[in-house]
Structures are given as structure tokens and as C-alpha cells.
Amino acid sequence: MRIFRSMATSASGMSAERLRLDLIANNIANVYTTRTESGGPYRRKVAVFAEALEQARSARFSGSGVKVAAVVEDDSPPKVVYDPTHPDANAEGFVQMPNVNPVNELVDMMTATRAYEANVTVFNAGKTMALKALEIGRG
């Protein structure tokens, strides 16, 4: 049934957006992390989405949702702040801060939340249609 395919597609979108929200929360949590295990300040992480393809019987490819292709680090340079009292300051008193902008992260969080909600709406509509189809069969 195509209803179940649409539900699976929206479920994949919800899963991808949940991961995106987790990455955004991690970015916000590390907005002041100046020292990591790999050295240097924390680098913002971003999810890269790709279309999940499924091969149909007719040898064509049809979309079957979204998948997270990769989680990459933002390659923008770290912010440099003058704070000679900071333990990670260099000889001139400058500290490399993470390349995380809290305002951008909040905007990304709002768009990810809206996309998640849209997928929930599609999923619930499919569920309602399937239930109505079962009621028709009973009558």
C-alpha cells in the first residue's frame, strides 16, 4: 500500500531531523569549549542529508525518504577573542573560540523542529487514512 510507503518516508524524515536536532544541541552545549581531545577549539558539526533511493521492480529508482549521508565539521575558522586570563590564551593573549554562532543554531533548531512536525503531520494523516480504509472494509 502506498500509504505505508508515505509513512515510512515521513518516519525517515523524523529520524533525520532528530539527529539534526541532537547535533544542534551538541553545538550549543560546546559554544565555549576551547580545548578538545583532538586539540584546538570545538568545531561545529552539521548533518548532510541525501535522498534514500529504492529500486523498484521496473528497474527505476524511486525516492523512499531521506538519510543522513554524513556528519561533517564546519570548516569556517574559529573566532579569536582577546582574553589574556584564559588558560588557553596564546602568548599575545588571544583565545581560539568555537565556530558556533548561537543565533544561527537557534534558527537551525527552529527549522529542524518545523520539519519534524511536518513529518509527524504526514505520518498521522497516513495513519488516519489507513484506519478509515479499515472502517470501509468493515461496513
Mean pLDDT: 90
Structural class designation: alpha+beta
Q: Could you tell me the strand content as a percent range?
A: 15-25%
Number of domains: 1
What summary fits the major beta sheet? 2 strands, antiparallel
The geometry reads as elongated
| Count of runs of 4 or more consecutive helical residues | 2
Helix-strand string: HEEEEH
Question: Order of strands in the sheet with the most strands?
Answer: 1-2
Distance between the termini: 20 Å
* Rg estimate, integer Å: 22 Å
Which tags fit this structure?
two-stranded antiparallel sheet; 2 helices; elongated
Fold topology:
Layout: H1 2-29, E1 45-55, E2 61-73, E3 79-82, E4 94-97, H2 102-138
Antiparallel strand pairs: 1-2, 3-4
Helix pairs in contact: 1-2
Would you kindly provide a brief summary of this structure?
The chain has 139 residues and is an alpha+beta fold. The chain contains 2 helices and 4 strands; from the N terminus they run αββββα.
Task: Give structural notes.
This protein has one domain. The protein has two helices and four strands, in the order H-E-E-E-E-H. Strand 1 and strand 2 form a beta hairpin. The two termini are 20 Å apart. 47% of the residues lie in helices and 23% in strands. By secondary structure, it is of the alpha+beta class. Helix 1 packs antiparallel against helix 2.
